[in-house]
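Rotation project, supervised by the postdoc (A.L.). Task for the rotation student: set up a whole-complex structure prediction and record inputs and outputs verbatim in this book. Inputs entered:
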Amino acid sequence: SQTIHQWPATLVQPVGSPLSLECTVEGTSNPNLYWYRQAAGRGLQLLFYSVGIGQISSEVPQNLSASRPQDRQFILSSKKLLLSDSGFYLCAWSTGNTIYFGEGSWLTVV
Amino acid sequence: RKEVEQDPGPFNVPEGATVAFNCTYSNSASQSFFWYRQDCRKEPKLLMSVYSSGNEDGRFTAQLNRASQYISLLIRDSKLSDSATYLCVVRGDYKLSFGAGTTVTVRA
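Outputs recorded:
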């Protein structure tokens, strides 16, 4: 069966520091991969999606970037975090109609 | 206008009650519809897909009204474990749009 894992689960970072969140998927090949952010009381906002290695599409302008160095690995990064980057970050995968989420990463920028 | 809108609630209901809520979507070309459940500080998990003819999964019933562009979720015989936030999800041409969620609290 397919599984998705992301880490770290929780992190507190100072403003201006870098960020790296990592996500891996097992049990499937060539999945579509996604990074979402969920702010308190708001819906999920799509940040990036990828249909293959090295193929990244950005949905919103921001100081975040994403990379897909391997088929089942998706990384979310920032060189300098802002306070507004705080939130719940979710990696997700799909191969068809349905999307499945990782456990999420809680980021607090202080 | 938001692509997907939901009543945030909360809906506070006693155990055994029936609770129902809707979600409206703006893109008339939307193709697929889902309900996800999200527990506090956890990831969303697929509850059920929503089919044009309506569908049931145990105590949960989902309906789609394309003419009025809304979907609904009904929970019968509510359990304490049904307390969660329910996200409405709509698939358009290439992406999913998520509602902000409807919070349901079932009390003993």
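Student's summary: Chain A touches chain B at residues 36, 41-44, 46, 49, 59, 88, 90, 97-104, 106 (CB under 8 Å).
Supervisor addendum: The longest strand of chain A covers residues 44-52.
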